[in-house]
Automatic annotation (TrEMBL):
It comes from Leptospira langatensis. The keyword DNA-binding applies. This is TetR/AcrR family transcriptional regulator. Residues 1-30 are annotated as: Disordered. GO terms for molecular function: DNA-binding transcription factor activity; transcription cis-regulatory region binding.
């Protein structure tokens, strides 16, 4: 069965593009300045997990980072810009994770196994990426985050179409999966967010993850059976 080709174009945006899109007051060009911005974002994502989005202030960020508040304002005009920048960095890392998944040469021998592997890859990312859930659980409060999330999900859906094209038995045209792949991405995003919130109840969390896999495979199988008739 033919394998999906590696598609670099599925990235919503590359990591190198990020400084131009982070709401920075000035875009860092020197290595030291770039490292300073990344350090600030590391501090912010850690604070998000500790205190949540509402409790974060620019003073708290500067204090935690051990830098003068003026240095923070050199790059970010306000708290909103910093959180948006952290969110954009998350999405760049999601896309990097997608490409790492392809590079890992996942088992393409059957589509059901591929669904399981893909969900596991996203679950690992959601669980280990600092500050991910606090930001994206509140994305509707920030129009910019809503916009970049929509664009990124569209890019990930294109990746899903590319990945499963040639693996799903009945599929003749990649366009046939355009809407299906978008639904799969949106459902996965929503369910994994709930899965993380239930992490203290391991049995429930495990059940949610398994049901997500079952739901997606049942969804695809409906179209497979219909296409084979």
């Amino acid at each position: 069965m033919p394998k999906a080709k590696k598609q670099k174009s599925t990235r919503a945006s590359s990591s190198q593009d990020k400084p131009e899109k982070m709401n920075l007051r000035k875009s860092p060009s020197q290595k030291r300045a770039i490292e300073r911005v990344q350090y600030i974002l590391d501090i912010v994502t850690g604070l998000l997990d500790e205190v949540g989005t509402e409790a974060i202030t620019t003073n708290l960020i500067a204090q935690k980072a051990g830098i003068p508040i003026g240095s923070l304002y050199q790059y970010f005009p306000n708290k909103h810009a910093i959180i948006s920048a952290a969110g954009e960095r998350h999405l760049a890392r999601v896309n990097d994770m997608v490409m790492d998944f392809i590079d890992s040469k996942p088992d393409m021998s059957n589509w059901e196994s591929l669904v399981d592997q893909l969900i596991d890859a996203f679950a690992r990312f959601y669980k280990t990426e600092p500050g991910f859930i606090p930001i994206w659980s509140n994305k509707n409060l920030d129009p910019q985050l809503v916009s970049i999330d929509r664009e990124n999900n569209r890019a990930i859906a294109n990746f899903v179409s590319d990945l499963f094209f040639g693996v799903i038995p009945w599929m003749k045209k990649k366009e046939e999966m355009t809407v299906m792949s978008r639904i799969m991405v949106e459902v996965t995003d929503s369910v994994l967010s709930r899965w993380l919130r239930e992490s203290q109840d391991q049995a429930l969390a495990d059940g949610i993850l398994q049901e997500l896999k079952t739901m997606l495979k049942s969804y695809l199988n409906y179209y497979i059976q219909r296409g084979e008739k």
